[in-house]
Amino acid sequence: MITYYGEAVVTATLSKLDTISFNYRQWQWVSSIGEVPYFDSTYDLNYRHKFNNKLSGNLEARLLGSDYTSGLAYTAAGHTPTTASTKKRNDVMYTFAAGLQYAITAHISTQLAYSFDFGRNAQDGVSDAGRVFNRQILSIGATFGF
Fold this sequence. Notes:
146 residues; mainly beta
């Protein structure tokens, strides 16, 4: 069986203060129970603005996908089917995030970030409310680097 792996990063420096980047990655992985392969995909768009030498901010939009229907092809290729590998599942998570970073010194900085995640089941004909969620995360951090 041939599996696909792809990864790309494109970054554009719009000015000395602004950058935008797009990250893409897709690979086939084995689920945590070790029986079902699935395609894991990440699409990430990030905008970063530097307000001054100490303060910067970023906005991010991300799409994460976990397509377990590739396990059906694995089963069809002659491998022993299992209950888990015959299930149809295609999970998607969307994330929108914003953050601020402040450099106190060259070695100490603080961060404040907020993200809103919402997960959905993208598989046609399957209604499983257990995989539908909304989540908000507020984080505060500090970095000490020497």
